[in-house]
């Protein structure tokens, strides 16, 4: 399963309709929780997710709407007895804030949280044997902030008819995948290219508080799913630029230039009431003709089906 559970969509201040930030990207048994704001523990429960679903905790920066849910999430991991490692990525420059959040109250602690502080302009995180890579890039915000990009390696899709035509079956198929060629029962050498086609790896990007910068475009490039802040409408561009944020139109232009397949707009300023939602989509659509989702709390957004070569 590959999908996004939207746990909250507000910016600095939660509203009656929008919780603080929180985004759970579920990817083949892994759960990457991005920017848990205040109330995330409850939102996980309402969305039908559990602490056991979490394998990553990724913080873009230490403004409260992106991290005040960390204490509850960590304590829930401990309380529920999660035994697998949970990697924690966060800006190294905010380590003191991480420590305060990580140990904000008295509880029976857990040793499964594995810290991976992020520094520099670009950093590739240690994902072990996970079926993806995870890269952080420095964004443009008044405090140090990072966006994250998940990438599945390219692979190949086996073609059953081509395998059968060449007499390759059973254990030979696995050997062909591992070695790139096998000797078929008739003595013929069969190559992987003859019996498969390229399978492009899928990509997802998560971009929160930032002004436009090169890192935004690099993170979004070719993403199947782009989750990106659109804090303001275009008429409030000056306010967005002054505070290191994006507008809906800017998010749409980023998605169009990057060839994104599904665009998820989120992190909405409390100055707009729910009736303004269509305007975010309209302004993004002025530049981007793909699928646009205006995020709502507790919504589920599937990762688009795999691209065909």
UniProtKB/TrEMBL annotation:
Catalytic residues of the enzyme: 65
Residues that, per the record, bind Zn(2+) 1: 61, 63, 141, 209
Pfam families assigned to the protein according to its UniProt record, in alphabetical order: Lactamase_B, Lactamase_B_2
Coiled coil: none
Record-level Gene Ontology MF annotations: 3'-tRNA processing endoribonuclease activity; zinc ion binding
Record flagged with keyword Zinc: yes
Cofactor, free-text remark: Binds 2 Zn(2+) ions.
Residue span(s) of domain Metallo-beta-lactamase: 19-211
Keyword list, A-Z: Endonuclease, Hydrolase, Metal-binding, Nuclease, tRNA processing, Zinc
Requisite cofactors: Zn(2+)
Superkingdom: Bacteria
Annotated Zn(2+) 2 binding sites: 65-66, 209, 267
Record-listed E.C. numbers: 3.1.26.11
Top-rank EC class of the record's enzyme: hydrolase
Record's catalysed reaction(s): Endonucleolytic cleavage of RNA, removing extra 3' nucleotides from tRNA precursor, generating 3' termini of tRNAs. A 3'-hydroxy group is left at the tRNA terminus and a 5'-phosphoryl group is left at the trailer molecule
Protein's job: Zinc phosphodiesterase, which displays some tRNA 3'-processing endonuclease activity. Probably involved in tRNA maturation, by removing a 3'-trailer from precursor tRNA.
Family stated for the protein in its record: Belongs to the RNase Z family.
Subunit architecture: Homodimer.
Protein name: Ribonuclease Z
Native species: Actinomadura craniellae
Gene designation: rnz
């Amino acid at each position: 399963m590959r999908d996004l559970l939207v746990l909250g969509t507000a910016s600095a201040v939660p509203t009656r309709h929008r919780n603080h930030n929180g985004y759970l990207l579920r990817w083949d048994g892994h759960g990457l929780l991005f920017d848990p704001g205040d109330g995330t523990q409850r939102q996980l429960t309402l969305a039908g997710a559990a602490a056991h679903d979490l394998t990553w905790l990724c913080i873009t920066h230490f403004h409260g709407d992106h991290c005040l849910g960390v204490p509850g999430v960590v304590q829930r991991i401990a309380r529920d007895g999660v035994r697998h490692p949970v990697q924690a990525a966060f800006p190294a420059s905010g380590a003191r804030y991480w420590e305060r959040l990580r140990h904000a109250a008295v509880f029976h602690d857990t040793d499964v949280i594995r810290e991976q502080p992020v520094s520099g302009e670009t950093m590739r995180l240690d994902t072990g044997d996970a079926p993806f890579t995870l890269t952080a890039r420095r964004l443009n915000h008044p405090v140090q902030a990072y966006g994250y990009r998940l990438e599945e390696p390219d692979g190949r899709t086996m073609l059953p008819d081509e395998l059968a035509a060449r007499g390759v079956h059973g254990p030979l198929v696995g050997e062909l995948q591992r070695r790139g060629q096998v000797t078929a029962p008739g003595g013929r050498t069969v190559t992987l290219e003859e019996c498969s086609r390229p399978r492009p790896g899928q990509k997802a990007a998560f971009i929160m508080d930032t002004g436009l910068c090169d890192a935004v475009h690099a993170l979004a490039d070719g993403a199947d799913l782009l989750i990106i802040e659109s804090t303001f409408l275009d008429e409030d561009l000056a306010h967005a630029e002054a505070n290191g944020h994006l507008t809906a139109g800017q998010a749409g232009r980023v998605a169009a230039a990057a060839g994104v397949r599904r665009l998820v707009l989120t992190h909405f300023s409390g100055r707009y009431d729910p009736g303004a939602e269509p305007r975010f989509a309209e302004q993004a659509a002025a530049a981007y003709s793909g699928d646009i989702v205006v995020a709502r709390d507790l919504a589920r957004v599937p990762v688009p089906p795999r691209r065909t070569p």
